[in-house]
Amino acid sequence: MLKIFTHIADIIVYGWFGMHKGEHLSSSIHFFIEDTTKIFALLTVMIYVIALMRASMNVERVRTYLSGKHRGIGYVLASLFGVVTPFCSCSSIPLFLGFTQARIPVGITMAFLITSPMINEVAVLLLGSMLGLKFMIVYVVLGIVAGVVGGAFFDLIKAEKYLLEFVKKAQAQGPVQPLETERPKRMSLKERHVFAKEELQEILGRVWKWVVIGVGAGALLHGYVPEDFISIHFSGAAWWNVPAIVMIGIPLYSSIHGVIPIAESLINKGLPIGSAVAFMMSMSAASFPEFMMLKQVMRTKMLVIFFVMLLILFTICGWVLNIVF
Prior knowledge:
- The chain is mainly α.
- It has one domain.
- The protein is built from 16 helices and no strands.
- Helix 8 runs antiparallel to helix 16 and helix 12 packs across helix 16.
- It is globular.
- It starts with a helix and ends with a helix.
- About 5% of the residues have low confidence.
């Protein structure tokens, strides 16, 4: 099905533009057109469908449900919720702050915050279409395990003491009790459509430029970066290749939708799958804007712990994917 975007790019580049296959410029332009149309089409469909499903979801009830569950179940549920939310790290933080202030245990909120930017539905589909079902399953499972392990770790160190005072006071009051009158509003199909349409416009309006920038960078890599450069510097079996590329990705912050084409291009250039995914995660999920926003609720020590944990989780995920694939 996704081959239709290749055909569209073929028609535009080799038909309308009259360019020839095998040239650096034509290869870059073909990559740009194919991936831009593919990403925007998938984004449009998936954001709309997910928003349609979420239209009548009562967030307060979700918070109450999570806060009353056994910690282990809570970690898994929060990680699963992180998987299905179509957000990058900075976009998921407002929901994370709401969870914290709703007195959900810190470990459960951290499980959500870790998994949400690590596992992205567009990345699953796009990279999965190239790498297969096995990759999709392993990728999602690794993200969920990372969220569960991370959440358990923060509860183990009693991370509540590293929160700011107003958050600790809210946490100390105990879990939220559900209200008898609290019922999710039942929306009509037309109201759900309006909600989904507005959310689609809002999210696309926020991420479209990152998609174009990311695809453009990926196109340049695809058309002009020598394959030997990637293979010599990061394609070896040395254990330090993955943590090195994770460190390189951190200052190069990008939306997850913008960095996916870069990861795809790097894989095509010979970078191991795990290294490319770790690079993608570090660019989108360990950003300086994210940590500036988290300063609203966390002390510096907890931010440092969270940062180091992300580096470790991304590196382990890269190592595992490199071993499996």
